[in-house]
Design goal:
Elements lengths: L2 H7 L6 E2 L5 H11 L11 E7 L1 H16 L5 H9 L6 E8 L8 H21 L2 E6 L7 H6 L6 E12 L20
Antiparallel strand pairs: 1-5, 2-3, 3-5, 4-5
Bound molecules: flavin mononucleotide.
């Protein structure tokens, strides 16, 4: 497959199983993340790796954070506990926004997103599948605190990674580019 074919056929895979990337492979994913365009070379991101027992703990942490922010619905809390168990590895993508006179927060946030996407593409290039998810658990400050995030840090995604099982997410017919470009 050519690099262009690779880009044109990238997909998200909702069903992921073991094995997850090894330590060496995680290192390669991080190298890819560090190749993201980065104004000022601030590296405004980091990733928390969860696998094995940590996935169960992550689910419990979600439920605890939700309770701290007022959630009392036991069905929602139980569901949250199971969310990380949908893959053998979850990479928590964290943006680290610094005060910088030249590089606005928006650019740093974009770089963190690009780094996450670099990682996603690298995982697919290595034969793994992934799925970027967010939802309320990504934007809950109580969960950020339990995860140990500090000032200026925020979760931008939970990237599920593993060995592909089944088909990519069905997103319907291939999109046509006509509506998103024109000469000006
Ligand atoms: C910032 C961000 C957050 C996302 N959050 C979710 C999510 O919570 N749940 C979900 O099903 N898809 C989410 N997606 C979309 C999926 O990752 C995926 O791109 C989408 O299902 C389309 O599939 P495809 O990547 O194969 O085209 C998110 C994507 C981005 C960039």
């Amino acid at each position: 497959m050519t690099p262009l074919d690779f880009l044109l056929t990238r997909r998200s895979f909702p069903i992921l199983t073991a094995p997850a990337p090894s330590n060496d492979q995680i290192n390669t994913l991080m190298q890819a993340a560090l190749r993201a365009p980065d104004h000022g070379n601030l590296k405004p991101f980091r990733f928390l790796v969860c696998e094995g027992e940590k996935l169960t703990q992550l689910g419990e942490l979600y439920a605890r954070g939700m309770q701290q922010s007022g959630e009392t619905d036991s069905v929602k809390l139980e569901r949250a506990k199971g969310l990380p168990l949908r893959a053998p590895m979850v990479l928590i993508a964290v943006a680290r926004i610094q005060n910088n006179p030249k590089i606005p927060a928006q650019e740093q946030l974009l770089t963190a997103g690009l780094a996450t996407f670099q990682l996603i593409n690298a995982a697919q290039a290595m034969g793994f599948g992934s799925y970027w998810r967010t939802g309320d658990i990504a934007y809950n400050p109580a969960i950020w605190q339990l995860l140990g995030l500090t000032d200026g840090e925020q979760v931008i995604g939970y990237v599920y990674v593993g060995t592909i099982k089944g088909e990519p997410k069905d997103t319907g017919a291939a999109p046509t580019p006509d509506s998103i470009w024109r000469y000006v």
